[in-house]
## 1
Amino acid sequence: MQIVHYVEELRGIISEAKKQGKSIGFVPTMGYLHEGHLSLARRARGENGLVVMSIFVNPLQFGVNEDYEDYPRDLSRDAPMAEAAGVDVLFCPGVADMYPRGYATFVEVEEITAVLCGASRPGHFRGVTTVVAKLFGLVQPDRAYFGQKDAQQLRVIEKMVEDLNMPVEIVPCPTVRELDGLAMSSRNAYLSPREREAALVLNRSLRRAEEAIRAGERDANRIREQVAAMIREEPLAEIDYVSVNDGVTLREIERIGDRVMVALAVRIGMTRLIDNLQMNLGGEG
Amino acid sequence: MQIVHYVEELRGIISEAKKQGKSIGFVPTMGYLHEGHLSLARRARGENGLVVMSIFVNPLQFGVNEDYEDYPRDLSRDAPMAEAAGVDVLFCPGVADMYPRGYATFVEVEEITAVLCGASRPGHFRGVTTVVAKLFGLVQPDRAYFGQKDAQQLRVIEKMVEDLNMPVEIVPCPTVRELDGLAMSSRNAYLSPREREAALVLNRSLRRAEEAIRAGERDANRIREQVAAMIREEPLAEIDYVSVNDGVTLREIERIGDRVMVALAVRIGMTRLIDNLQMNLGGEG
């Protein structure tokens, strides 16, 4: 595995791979890898000639009072994990190489970025789409792999790719969970043991919603209320949002139709965690 | 030459060309071709395996009171001209194919879009960068050709490509002029014979500025005043801006250094025309 720190070096590698006709699979990350990231890399390995993973904690997608400074960074821990998962090129650029002095170009997806995490984190998705557009320009991937845990991010990226006619296939991959159900996230490292226990309420309330919907509940408000009530029972948890939306436009719904997303953002102590449930009920409901 | 009306059809052609290892040269236009456009196509022909020209009058880059509806369109006139200039694929998409219902993604270059034409045409460059990003996504060109007549547009596109790490080389090409010096523009078709005569004041004032700078004038305000005074002598002309800027950031300068751009936007009757002069004085001044 090659570790590449500079944009120009990466360009050379990509250009060579293109010349050789290799397909390129790309896994963008902010590092501090966990099994979720590695599942993306393994899938990319199976489907492409060259697998590129980026590790870049993107300052543009953090708000002023968010955890940009504290976000965990450990390349010596991440590199062997990436290599074992089949990554060929680990791209770890510096901030000054990605956003040099005078940087002035931004990519913005409107509408679906105004709700959910976009409502609580103004500018967040503009940072995400800008850096992903840059990384796509650099890596020129045939396929890019994103986890469904960040469901809104995935929809926003899909929308950007569709709208800007970007020549890349976005491959959504299932959320990977700890044995007890907690969705894997680099931010789980922030949790104290008590908070780690409290964080289980996200998955637990989603499983309760899933059961209710499977049992025939179609009133979205009843689902919202059940989920919110369960989270409120956990003293360390504070709800940012509980959304029952259509899973595509991410607009809140009243009645659950063929497709539904239940999405949560919850603060556990100082740590903001997200999780979601997506169901296709076509033919069932 | 193939004439292609649909995004999906173009995708197939590009994908095939890429498989064959052909380099792709791209000339984006709004049609109503003139010798300026054709010079770009001929240059692209000489440097690439496949030459794609687009003709798309992009609604996103027109303001509400601008000439989107009136902009001249004539594919039966343009197609043979494009073919004779060496174009292989003429891409003429419809608005609904480029901006389908629910379209929501925009590319924006800040700072250098706030001055000159950006100041008089709010949203114009956002429309330009968005459509060019889309066309680059579709055509995946190795090289894209732009005329220096639209000097700010060229700088904005170069900035977008640099900032977003787009894998395309931007090739600036010299302004092509009529025998009497008027810069070629599709909008020249709007001019009455008297206006056509009056429009010569743009080039005449730029040539005067060039002479003055060559003769050693380094006071940018004197140049601005001389150019503006000459334009004001023409009764049909109304100045939008006279800029003496550094040619890179497009900021107004006081003293002329190694590099200078004199840029004009002038209304001749109802028709807004632009022109510019770019000089490299390194070693001279």
## 2
Amino acid sequence: MRFAEPLQLQGGGTLADYTLVYETYGTLNADKSNAVLVCHALNASHHVAGMYEGDPKSIGWWDNMVGPGKPVDTDRFFVIGVNNLGSCFGSTGPMHANPATGKPYGASFPVVTVEDWVAAQALLADKLGIAQFAAVMGGSLGGMQALAWSMMHPQRLRHCVVIASTPKLSAQNIAFNDVARQAILSDPDYRGGDFYAHGVVPKNGLRVARMVGHITYLSDDDMAEKFGRKLRNAAEGNAYKFDFGIDFEIESYLRYQGDKFSEYFDANTYLLITKALDYFDPARAFDGDLTQALANTTAEFFVASFSTDWRFSPERSREIVQALVCNRRRVTYAEIDAPHGHDAFLLEDARYINMVRAYYERIWDGMKGQA
Amino acid sequence: MRFAEPLQLQGGGTLADYTLVYETYGTLNADKSNAVLVCHALNASHHVAGMYEGDPKSIGWWDNMVGPGKPVDTDRFFVIGVNNLGSCFGSTGPMHANPATGKPYGASFPVVTVEDWVAAQALLADKLGIAQFAAVMGGSLGGMQALAWSMMHPQRLRHCVVIASTPKLSAQNIAFNDVARQAILSDPDYRGGDFYAHGVVPKNGLRVARMVGHITYLSDDDMAEKFGRKLRNAAEGNAYKFDFGIDFEIESYLRYQGDKFSEYFDANTYLLITKALDYFDPARAFDGDLTQALANTTAEFFVASFSTDWRFSPERSREIVQALVCNRRRVTYAEIDAPHGHDAFLLEDARYINMVRAYYERIWDGMKGQA
């Protein structure tokens, strides 16, 4: 969807002309009351569910959650996935031409915020004729967007589903993001953000950024279980190599994840998204009082967290729940005992998946007037 | 102290000729029974205590622990600090000339292990005529050396003091080390380890390596308390900058720590020391059974850990204690409720400092036949 009207951004700039790439699943009903907006996290996109014809590897990032007969049942709901501004998966981003110069934005692409993304998503909803979503949902950074929706457009969503998220990053979260940024910014191939013109990609920086990020997505226990101190060459004598190559499975795994990521992800997008994460802090305008920040919400909430998530720990979700309860909002909170750390929100965990399924059953029942 | 006899290394190589830089504090008594060896961690050195004449900033890294009237009282004990092989503070390391080629070792400096360091320290003790230490002590990586002493030379120490340490790194620990290594190795200024010849230093890599390391030394809570989401320009309007510069105090702090470190630390040394950390695993030769690994120890042990240390958590110290108890060793264990994460072992915490003081009082009493 192309937008010719300039978008005013929180940081002061504007995007003169932009495109949002989106996908939909299921059918919008006659009164347009069954739409669900799914917001994506750091390295995901509008491609939430299903696969593209002839490409069986192209499975959507939340395919276990969204689809026919799945927790967010596309036989009932009209699900929309939107790629956020600044991303590298189709919506206008730093690799696209700035209409003012004809050259790629690069590092001059404006720093966008969670609130900017929500503003753009709302304009897309306008164009699609969706006045109110049955639910807006997301995990991690996607959960921040859902939360922002509930505050910025309280009347436009009946339910808000916030999974493995937080009302703001901690100093430690910001610190890890800044390590990632410094790795990218100090890669000579970053070229001040104009690497596109030089035919290079700051792969080394992206690789290190992804490696450090990936560590924070997994739990210590899960890493211990999956990798422990297993050597990569266990078959060949189980000996240390005594060089700076790969000794341990965990090194091999992380480097592989880093390499893969650096092949497809855009460095400027990574910088932008980490800043959006850092900046999100809706309580900031209320002197840190999250209860006040959530005072004008009207949606019903489902909040979920995972016991071993040390990136956005259950404590952070409890802050959200507490602020909602203080506002006398309806809120369901699931703290799920799961071993997989932050990544758990993307994985198959029966208790988690069943909770979301049950919540969407209730949304559906509510739509039939049976709440 | 120069050693002309080649040192056989665990990794198979040898160091043909090497020098160990060391400092001593206090006076060795007539029967040479009051010597204490202090082993250093990642970025420290032989300069444990005191300051150099005319340089008031040159305070030793454990000056709060070692000195006249301090917990390790140099009016009683003869304390030795040794700089480890491969370091960049004086002992033979990658920046020194390989006698075989006349050129700096660079990345060809052999990968040394905790056990190699202990072997070299034992040879130094031989030269100093010290048959048995009153205690060998260390924190973090230094604690690993103390533990290795208790296994490799059980008769040569009466007490073993292991603080904020672990019997082996976890997958997560190794993962963070590998991020640091990849940051250095992929810095173009690393030049395959021969940056000395090119008059450059892989500062960007070292900087990122230090930033990520530093995060793991601090507790989440401590970071929240010290930095939280404080903005650096709080005085100038408390506004986000909407660029990739510094917004938050924590970014400023970490980048400063990274910059400072990259000015004085050697990149090859950093790689070597992280490998020594990764490789340490005395239970490995016993099919993972730490109790068996510690079976031939004879020392009495003092083990301490800190509640908010998530790098080497109390659980890891408890593993050591349990294995010692199973071996019917005398062991004192202090799990100290302290807010400062892994760094706590270097800081002034009254309970911690007093525990160490009391333990050394007991060592002293034992030496007078009053145990």
